[in-house]
Amino acid sequence: MPENPESLSPSEWKLLQRGMDIYLDLLLDDLCSVLSGEALKDTMVLGDVLPSQFTSWYTPLFLKQFVVCGIHLVAKIDNWEGDPLAACTAEELAFRGLIEWVPTLSEPDITSDTIEHLQDFREEVMPDFDVDMLFNLALDGIEDDEVIGTRLGLDSLRPENWFQPFTGLRVHPYCRDDETDSE
After folding, report:
1. Helix 89-101 and helix 60-78, axial crossing angle in degrees, nearest 10
2. What CA–CA distance (Å, rounded) separates 114 from 111?
3. Can you list the alpha helix ranges (DSSP code H) found in the chain?
4. For residues 44 and 29, is the Cβ–Cβ distance under 8 A?
5. 3 state SS of 35
6. Residue 63 covered by a domain
7. pLDDT of 26-48, one tens digit each?
8. Which end of the chain is more exposed for a tag (fewer CB within 10 A), N or C?
9. What is the pLDDT of residues 135-163, one digit of tens each?
10. Does 98 map to a domain?
């Protein structure tokens, strides 16, 4: 049985679960729209959860893999038993997007406390918030600075590494690079 996170009340947990369903619907709709020619920036969710400075990386395969990471992450949240949630940077980005998106639902039970508790949940299940740096334009390029990157362990912030599993974790097989995947 999934564990109710300490940071979320039962009603907030249910809100997150409802939000996950809608979030996935929107990610899938957005993927279809982009594959049909719509600009990523014009989508409902996908354009907001991916850092804009890396658009040259967002090929159809890359976007499909990202959406699969979102689906994989939501399944892990729904069955969460206290283990680390995100297995790679793409899943961290998908989770960040979810936690920031859920408060936009038109639900009467979303309060400032709910928003705070969702952020607390993110802190509870994520080892760090390095992906937030990708949305701070003042830090643009930090993922490419070898001195800072090595010292802070920021290699995973480069788009070419977003689907690489963190040590000891597994990504969805669709996103796996069999040459570098650690089992």
Report:
1. 70
2. 5
3. 10-35, 46-49, 60-78, 89-101, 112-125, 146-152
4. yes
5. helix
6. yes
7. 999 999 999 999 999 999 999 99
8. N
9. 888 787 777 676 776 666 666 788 998 99
10. yes
Compute how many other C-beta atoms are within 10 angstroms of the C-beta atom of residue 145: 13
> How many domains does one find in the chain?
1
How many whole angstroms separate alpha carbon 46 and alpha carbon 23?
10
Whole-angstrom distance, CA of residue 86 vs CA of residue 169: 9
Written as six digits, the tokens of 132 are 């937030």
Q: Which domain holds residue 72?
A: 10-175
Burial class (CB in 10 A: 0-12, 13-18, 19+), 165: buried
Q: Which two tokens stand for residue 71?
A: 């689906």
Is 181 inside any structural domain?
no
**Lowest-pLDDT range of 1-5, 48-52, 84-88, 147-151:** 1-5
Residue pair 71/32 in contact by the 8 Å Cβ criterion: no
Proportion of the chain above pLDDT 90, given as a percent: 55
Whether 183 is in a domain gets the answer: no
Residue 52 has a CB neighbour count (10 Å cut-off) of: 14
